[in-house]
Amino acid sequence: MALTNVRVARLDGKAFVLDRIPEGSLAALHVFFPDPWPKKRHAKRRLFSPDFVRAAALALVPHGRLRVATDNLPYFESIREVLDAEPTLEKIPGSEAGWSSGTDYERKYEKEGRPMARGIWRRRTAG
């Protein structure tokens, strides 16, 4: 079967969302295990910044979902704060449990007993 709706772009994910995704064009956006850039001087390199979150939210269709998973709990708290501050998004209650990213990272980390942090936010409808 020939696929006609697949495109590949080799560039930074943040730049891709900020510069290339049209508003209202995604049903979902999944961000699993983003680099936490734990050193204070590197924090500016984190994916989840207000400008990224705003662009990601606008790229979603109404009720479109943004799924996030990480094993870095302090970074997840930072991610949660930035997502919760975006007025076009709302957290889906109870979305912390009941789903898996299915990534190799997640399987490996769960075998090691690392705690996971997950959440799903959705774009609010206009008005």
Describe the fold and architecture.
This protein has helices spanning 13-20, 50-59, 73-85, 104-111, and strands spanning 26-32, 60-70, 89-91, 117-123. Strands 1-2-4-3 form a four-stranded mixed sheet. It is built from four helices and four strands, in the order H-E-H-E-H-E-H-E. It has 127 residues and is α+β, with helices and mostly antiparallel strands. The chain has a domain at 26-34 and 46-123: 3-Layer(aba) Sandwich (Rossmann fold), CATH 3.40.50.150.
Query: How many alpha or pi helices?
Result: 4
> Major β-sheet, in short?
4 strands, mixed
Helix content: 25-40%
The structural class is alpha+beta
Average pLDDT level? 92
Distance between the termini: 41 Å
Rg, rounded, reads 15 Å
Q: What percentage of the residues does DSSP assign to strands (E)?
A: 15-25%
